[in-house]
Amino acid sequence: MRALLSLAILAVLATPVAADEPGLGETTFFEHCGGCHGENADGDGPMTEILTVTVPDLTTLSARNEGTFPWLRVVHVVDGRTGLRAHGGPMPIFGAVFEGDKVAADAPDGTPVITSARVLAVVDYLETLQQP
């Protein structure tokens, strides 16, 4: 019953997935994340000079997680509406910024996720940048 209810909610909230639009993740990253995380997502963006927190190198997320990209955790951090403030609070809540393009997806472990298509596109883009 719970699974059926989850599927019904996802069907109602889901809109056509734009997350697979070519270049959407990269473009969104450069426009909204690159200022802090850097053009190459390695934590050396131009805003780091004025920030009071260390900006993480996003190309080493897999390496810091035993070789596995922490997809669901990254979605939660980028979306920001889950209450997880992994960056201590200064990171913008992009789930609210990207309001209006909600999509449903399944995390690698099967957990249903409802977030912005642009959040998913950024997360998928970050996964392609992972260094060994």
Layout of strands and helices, then pairs:
Elements: H1 2-13, H2 24-32, H3 34-37, H4 71-79, H5 94-97, E1 102-106, E2 112-116, H6 117-128
Antiparallel strand pairs: 1-2
Following the backbone from N to C, one meets helices and strands in this order, namely HHHHHEEH
Average pLDDT, all residues: 82
Query: How much helical structure, as a percent, in the residues?
Result: 25-40%
| Measured distance between first and last alpha carbons | 42 Å
Class inferred from helices and paired strands: mainly alpha
- Give the strand line-up of the largest sheet: 1-2
Query: According to CATH, what is the topology?
Result: Cytochrome Bc1 Complex, Chain D, domain 2
The backbone outline, from C-alpha atoms, is globular
Please give the radius of gyration in angstroms: 15 Å
Q: Count of helical segments? A: 6
Produce a short descriptive summary:
Helix content is 38%, strand content 8%. The protein is mainly alpha-helical.
Describe this structure in words.
This protein has 132 residues and is mainly α. The protein has a single domain, classed as Orthogonal Bundle (Cytochrome Bc1 Complex, Chain D, domain 2), CATH 1.10.760. Helix content is 38%, strand content 8%. The protein has six helices and two strands. The protein has helices spanning 2-13, 24-32, 34-37, 71-79, 94-97, 117-128; strands spanning 102-106, 112-116. A two-stranded antiparallel sheet has the order 1-2. A hairpin with a 5-residue loop joins β1 (102-106) and β2. Mean pLDDT is 82; it is low at 1-17.
